[in-house]
Amino acid sequence: MPLSDIQVRNLKSTDKAYKVSDFEGLFVLVKASGSKSWRFKYRIDGKEKLLVIGDYPAISLAQARKARDAAKAQLARGIDPNEAKQEEKRIRLAAKGETFEKLGQAFLEKQRIEGKTKATLDKTAYHLKLANRDFGRKPITEITAPMILKTLRKVEAKGNYETAHRLRARIGSIFRYAVASGVAETDPTYALRDALIRPTRKHRAAITDPNELGQLLRDIEQFNGQTSTRIALKLLAMLAQRPGELRHAKWAEFDLEERVWAIPAGKMKMRRDHNVPLPSQAISLLEELRPLTGECEFLFPSLNSWKRPMSENTLNAALRRMGYSGDEMTAHGFRASFSTLANESGLWNPDAIERALAHEERNEVRRAYARGEHWEERVRLADWWAGRLDEMRAD
Question: 280-296, pLDDT tens digit by residue?
Answer without folding.
Answer: 999 999 999 999 998 99
